[in-house]
Fold each of these.
Amino acid sequence: MRFSIIFTFILLLLSLPSFAKSELPYGCDEYSKVEKKSFVLFNKKQFIELGECAGEALVKAQKIYNIADACSEVIEDKNSLLGIFSLSKLEAIKMGVCLGAINAVYNRYDREVVTTNSYLRSKRYYSCKKGMEGVNKLISSADEEYYQRSELRDILCRRVY
């Protein structure tokens, strides 16, 4: 009887939701208000979201570093049996930086019309890669340590009619 009461109590404690903040507000402005000690309560998903905001901000600032290294974490996470549970906090942030940079380039340039100075003055537009295609493209094409937004655009996007 005593064992069943203790077992029920432990089971009840494990099934209750955590009182830590499980969702961060939409938008990256909220990350600037987070205190250093609050990062202990972050889960891996929140670190990925933090990295996405950092990646997007770096692309907007026209500089991003070690994109191939950051994107290799996405492939490692995909191939791991444990998935997101095998990531450290730094790896989760790197993964977010890669995804944030790809999304920022995609949102800025995909379907943007570009006029070319040719004889017929044809209009072209950018068609950009997103998701795992973008990750694979950045890993295979990125050979420098530092990239500007236009260089990332040239890697991820191509002009089509």
Amino acid sequence: MNLFTGTRSKRGAATRARSRSVLRTLAVVSTALALAIPVTSATATPAAAPAAIPPGLSCHTGKHAIDEYTGFALCRNNGSQTQTFWVHLVCGWAPDVDGNRVTVRPGESDQSTAHCGKIGTGIGEIHVRP
């Protein structure tokens, strides 16, 4: 029925069914296209690259053998200058944490440790920061 004139449409039932079918198909196709476009492409921010280990340090990183929420960086200074480093843990749901700052003279080794909060999912990544 036309709301402005109060008259009925002269189209038949078959035409109305076909119109509904076309509208339904159009709705399904447009919804599928909208869902196919990744939302993250427009809103994602580029992740910062992890800091490189300073020249002269050789490091081994890992999780504690008994406690998977504790991570470490064991570094040796193979350079000719004193170096300072610390471990940085990416902790999943819990906030990321930094370990103690460690200063090593040439030829020395030392370790920095940190502990993720128990509300998190454990250690996701371990980085050495200069």
